[in-house]
Write a structure and sequence with these properties.
Elements: H1 2-33, H2 59-70, E1 73-78, E2 81-86, H3 89-96, H4 124-140, H5 146-165, H6 174-190, H7 199-211, H8 227-233, H9 239-263, H10 272-282, H11 292-323, H12 325-339, H13 354-366, E3 376-377, E4 382-384, E5 387-389, E6 394-397, H14 399-402, E7 421-422, E8 425-426, H15 445-462, E9 463-466, E10 475-478, E11 482-485, E12 490-493
GO cellular component, one term: cytoplasm
InterPro entries: Cyt_P450 (IPR001128), Cyt_P450_CS (IPR017972), Cyt_P450_E_grp-I (IPR002401), Cyt_P450_sf (IPR036396), Cytochrome_P450_fam2 (IPR050182)
Family: Belongs to the cytochrome P450 family.
């Protein structure tokens, strides 16, 4: 009798567990399928995880394919977050011009620096105050002016000395471009570059190489933020390395701030930290977003966003010269005709070099260095393209998709620099949005274009670039920016 009771209880508990499991599946499935009326169409994905497992390593291509199926605007869930994807220029223009789609979502993928916030992750009046200050400060420090060109020329001199020392032999150009380009940004932030062999410079190189993949807007921690700490503890998918480098990067930033405090002079503002410290001292409003916590975050945002995409753009420009030798020859011919072999290019020369700058634009379109822009979210219920979008919805812009839309680009998968030339001048069509669109686009757009132009034209004026053999092995890293690794190329001084 006792045995039968135990068997009965065991079977009852077993059946109860099955019923609970089925109930939970039904509950989550019901909630998953219960969508707001008049949402954009889109795939359902899986309970709990949503469509996240299906995005793949090149999510921008997956999103572009879904645009072909569902239209230029569609929706799905990533984790428990409703996401609306913008896939062509018309919906991007409408959505990113909407004041109700100006915010950043909570726990954005680039917010990994301990105990900090920044203008890139802030919203409302805080974002407006920090962006206005930062853009003005960087302009006064030389962004888009001749002073910044001096920073760039100094780094170019170092870079060319290193390249010349290789005497045309195969080299890892990536290892040189990384510190060179980011040293320009570092000079704006702390007032000086770091020697290539400096221990802090070596750390920053490794940090940038590591963190590029963690700032990607389709990373797991953007939709399951609490998992980030568990994955770091369990050393899953490199999250322990991300924590390590962000902790160490915070210490580096704090050291720079403390150093600037000791040498601070109200009448001699030398860099972004100085400018921020001056504002902290003189700000009289009772309510202000200025703080050292914000300064740390802004430093991280400008350093990361200024270093990696600019370097990636330059590397794709050089890779395109390897892929299209006829384009390299045309650039050499234009540079020789306008500059000769000796006079270094300046930003003022860009108007006289329409083909060269059109090549840069086509590289930025064809490869789309930042394929998915930083995420936005709705601050209140709104409409996009006639669809109802609830408050708190994440808005994802597939810039790569916009740049490969046949509606705006003839033969979009072909490399055609001439598409940016009209009546002998370089032009930028509306659908060309490598820095995103609207009031919340990248604040460093002008600085990035000038940097890439000066680096690229200077290198092309002096060198021809070739692969060491006939096989061109293209290695890519896809993160917040799409990088190509130039680890085996030859740069030879032109005769």
């Amino acid at each position: 009798m006792a045995v039968n009771i135990h068997v009965y209880l065991f079977d009852t508990l077993k059946n109860l567990k099955i019923e609970i499991f089925i109930g939970l599946v039904v509950f989550f499935t019901f909630n998953w399928l219960r969508r707001v009326k008049n949402l954009p169409p889109g795939p359902y994905g899986l309970p709990v995880l949503g469509y996240l497992p299906f995005l793949g390593s090149e999510a921008y291509r997956t999103l572009h394919n879904l645009t072909d199926k569902y239209g230029p605007i569609f929706s799905f869930y990533l984790g428990r977050k409703l996401v609306v994807v913008l896939g062509n220029f018309d919906v991007v223009k409408e959505a990113l011009s909407n004041n109700k789609i100006m915010d950043r979502p909570k726990n954005p993928p680039n917010d990994l620096l301990p105990d900090s916030t920044s203008l890139s992750v802030s919203n409302g009046l805080i974002w407006k105050e920090q962006r206005k200050f930062s853009v003005q400060a960087l302009r006064e420090l030389g962004m888009a002016k001749s002073k910044m060109e001096d920073f760039i020329q100094a780094q170019l001199n170092m870079l060319m000395e290193e390249i010349d020392s290789k005497k045309g032999n195969p080299m890892n150009l990536d290892q040189l471009l990384l510190p060179t380009v980011s040293n320009v940004i570092l000079t704006m932030l702390i007032g000086k570059p770091l020697d290539f062999k400096d221990k802090d410079r070596l750390f920053l190189n490794k940090m940038l190489q590591t963190m590029v993949v963690f700032f990607r807007p389709t990373r797991l921690h953007a939709y399951f933020p609490s998992l980030r700490y568990w994955m770091a503890s369990l050393k899953i998918w490199g999250y322990d390395q991300a924590e390590y480098y962000m902790d160490k990067f915070e210490k580096f930033i704090v050291e720079q701030i403390e150093h600037q405090k000791k040498t601070f002079d109200n009448h001699n503002v030398q860099n972004y930290i100085d400018s921020y410290l001056l504002t902290l001292k003189t700000k009289v409003e009772k309510v202000s977003s200025f703080s050292e916590k914000m300064l740390k975050g802004n430093f991280q945002s400008f350093f990361s966003a200024g270093s990696t995409p600019s370097r990636a753009t330059l590397e794709w420009c050089l890779m395109s010269m390897l892929r299209y030798p006829e384009v390299q020859k045309a650039i050499h011919d234009e540079l020789d005709a306008v500059l000769g072999k000796d006079r270094r290019p300046t930003w003022d020369d860009h108007l006289a070099l329409p083909y060269t700058i059109s090549v840069i634009y086509e590289v930025m379109r064809h490869n789309t260095i930042v394929p998915i822009s930083m995420l936005r979210c709705t601050s209140s219920r709104t409409k996009i393209a006639g669809y109802d979008i609830p408050k708190g919805t994440v808005v994802m812009t597939n810039i790569w998709g916009v740049h490969h839309d046949p509606k705006d680009w003839d033969d979009p998968f072909s490399f055609k620099p001439e598409r940016f030339i009209k009546d002998g001048k370089a032009v930028k069509p509306q659908a060309f949005i490598p820095f995103s669109y609207g009031r919340r686009n990248c604040p460093g757009e002008d600085m990035a274009i000038i940097m890439v132009f000066l680096f690229f034209t200077s290198l092309m004026q002096r060198y021809s670039i070739t692969p060491p053999d006939t096989d061109l092995d293209i290695k890519q890293v896809v993160g917040v920016a799409k990088l190509v690794i130039l680890d085996n190329v030859c740069l030879k001084i032109r005769c």
